[in-house]
Amino acid sequence: MILHRWEKLLARARRASLDEVGVLVLVAILAGTLWAFAELAEDVVQGKTRTFDERVLLLMRNPVDRSDPVGPEWVEELARDFTGLGGVGVLTFLSLAVVGFLGLQRKWHTVLVLCLAVGGGLLLSSLLKHGFSRPRPDLVPHGSLVYTSSFPSGHSMMSTTTYLTLAALLVRTVSGRRIKLYIFSVALVLASLVGTSRVYLGVHWPTDVLAGWTIGAAWAILWWLLTRRLQKAGHVEPESTILEG
């Protein structure tokens, strides 16, 4: 009898698809990123991150002249290029370009999901910034124009949300694990470069960027899971039809 039960359990385990395993992984990552953001937010509010923030920020500055970021001038210019990849203008253009592409194929449900994911992320970023109202770094001159509060980093959050969401749409059009992994890797590298550049330019504390990455990833994963549920219910175009004319 016990052996029979074990055989049933093993058979059920074998039937578990990779897709279901992937969902469990995403749920675990979602929980982890939300927990990380909550812990960071609590520590920031209590002032526990000040020493860490200052130390990391100053590591990126000339110890003799804090107005001078480490490295040659072209590195600073490169940082401005990278930070632009997380700007509202660039992310809006990329999102609208994908919206147009999907619209030409009449994938209106996928268009709606993309707009809600990116637009909702922008709204959430603004609400969080307003709620925490953390001042920008005052240790070094800012290497980029800023006009909002510091926590969490909007560039980091929105680049993570947008690039991961676009990557999730793109992987639905290709097959092969290596290709899918490559696409997500590029999205993560872009988000990493944007966030790092914000600290390098002195416009964000390191914990601002860490918080932006975590809540941005959580928001993107939440929409991935929702999209999958809507797709199974027939409310979003299935993967195989995304590139059909």
Walk me through what this model shows.
By secondary structure, the protein is an all-alpha fold. It has helices at 2-15, 18-45, 50-59, 73-84, 88-104, 108-132, 154-171, 177-200, 206-232. Helix 5 (88-104) runs antiparallel to helix 6 (108-132), helix 6 packs antiparallel against helix 7 (154-171) and helix 7 packs antiparallel against helix 8. The protein is globular, with a radius of gyration of 21 Å.
Major sheet, described briefly? none
Roughly what percent helix?
A: over 70%
Binned strand content: under 5%
For the secondary structure, the number of strands is: 0
Global shape: globular
Low-pLDDT residue spans: none
The rounded distance between the terminal residues' Cα atoms is 55 Å
The helix/strand series, from N terminus to C terminus, equals: HHHHHHHHH
Rounded to an integer in angstroms, the radius of gyration calculated over CA atoms is 21 Å
How many individual helices?
9
Mean pLDDT: 88
Query: What structural class results from the helix and strand content?
Result: mainly alpha
